[in-house]
């Protein structure tokens, strides 16, 4: 894992380096930057050499350009690292996730929290690998996938629904809701069967829902006042929202961060 520590305090950078070395004694690289300008140069240089950083551990309050402003700039960079904010202040947590940060750590950083943040980064890398594998499929296989259909029988009527048109599947009671951009169907099949057969096409976001990753428009806090820690997805083209389980939340964040 290639890691960039961005902090204007030398002691803070030194302590973070020690924590990282204790966690992974032989990382590919741990580099440091004392401000946003140094960080941008390091990130650009690493990408140009074909060895981009996997993660930037980014302080928010720095002289000149802040960490939050740096993260906003990096959102448009194709080879930007995942962002994990490391700060003594907690009031920026919500803003951090609005710029697709993977995690938000408060100083002094505990080893357990750092481990959890880096595991999320590793999930991001796995998600990226899945996306790359999907994109390099043979064109003939892609054409065959586009023609695949799901046979749905409802009240005596039978209809073929092209899988390429499906936005999400949601299990409800004894049926699965099959949602396209224009229609909604009830299917008597198994969500687990769909996930096993089309693992490269759909992402599990909840125990009861599979969604096309490219259909995800945004991740936001759930609107349910009784679930203050809940998250939900908004999708392109339809008003439906899908709940995201705590277990799948890091993977969803990873996908959104990498596709920004």
Notes on the structure:
The protein has 260 residues and is of the alpha/beta class. 35% of the residues lie in helices and 29% in strands. It has eight helices and 15 strands. The protein has helices at 10-23, 36-48, 67-74, 93-98, 111-135, 139-147, 191-197, 249-258, and strands at 2-6, 29-33, 55-58, 82-87, 103-106, 149-154, 157-162, 166-172, 175-180, 184-187, 203-206, 209-211, 216-221, 231-235, 241-244. It has a five-stranded parallel beta sheet, with helices on both faces. A five-stranded antiparallel beta sheet has the order 10-9-8-12-11. A hairpin with a 5-residue loop joins strand 14 and strand 15 (241-244). Helix 5 (111-135) packs across helix 8. The radius of gyration is 21 Å and the shape is elongated.
- Count of separate DSSP helical elements: 8
The helix-strand sequence is EHEHEHEHEHHEEEEEHEEEEEH
Main beta sheet: 5 strands, parallel
The rounded distance between the terminal residues' Cα atoms is 21 Å
Order of strands, main sheet, comes to 2-1-3-4-5
Coarse shape: elongated
Structural class: alpha/beta
In terms of per-residue confidence, which ranges show pLDDT below 50 for 5 or more consecutive residues?
Answer: 136-144
> How many DSSP E strands?
15
Please tell me the overall pLDDT: 82
Share of residues in strands: 25-35%
Percent range of helical residues: 25-40%
